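Input chain follows. Return structure tokens only.
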Amino acid sequence: MNKIKSLVITGYGINCERELAAAYELAGAETKIVHLNDVFLGKVNINDYEILNFPGGFSFGDDLGSGKVLANKMKYKRMADGKLFYSAILEFIEAGKFVLGICNGFQFLVKMGLLPNVQHEHLQEVTLTLNDSGKFEDRWVYCRTNPDSVTPFLQGIDKIALPVRHGEGKLIIRDEQITQSIKTGGLNCLSYCDKAGNLTDEYPANPNGSDLNCAGLCDETGQVFGLMPHPEAFLSLYNHPDWARMKRVAPEIADTGEGLKIFRNIVEHLESRR
């Protein structure tokens, strides 16, 4: 059986593309890294792939707000065939395929209007802005999954430890109606928690002060998923700063990192549909 095919976008300041590609390779997918311009120029067709990925980084230096410039470029740029790249993404999703955005990639999805899209108008309904701490947060946090979430990316995950690396990760929801739609649909699929697994809005367990303690959102289909923490940075147990103690306490612990589960989940889900 042919491998699941995953496309990782890079360029314009994105810098986590190799880690993300490695995650999919370890999960059993065939992965290609391409510059966004190659998609615009028609050298690469996103429809040849089953997962479209927007990694983390500092697109355009975050000079006008994280992800905003590249989000606008992706939303309004016409490709070589005259079609808007954004229209191609929508067709990709309508075909039952999956989109993942991590950190800066999450910011793209939010600012393009792909997440959470509860009003089905593809307009920006939430934003990601400066952390309440007023500084760049580069450390490990704990997250809990929402049991009502519909996204296969998080299947079988309850609590997960992941690193954050962001200065603008605070999710702000536009109004109460959108907030209620997110809550009702279980779209707030990943939330910051303390070590015991209790959801929290208190710093430092919550690194940015997000509404709903939100660390990740999905759309109503579960096909579009974005999160601020970096699962691609926890592919091996030895990525974790406390791995030695973890091994002493539980010698039987797996050598794989918890973040790898997210990528295995989506690859296995797509394989099961064939």
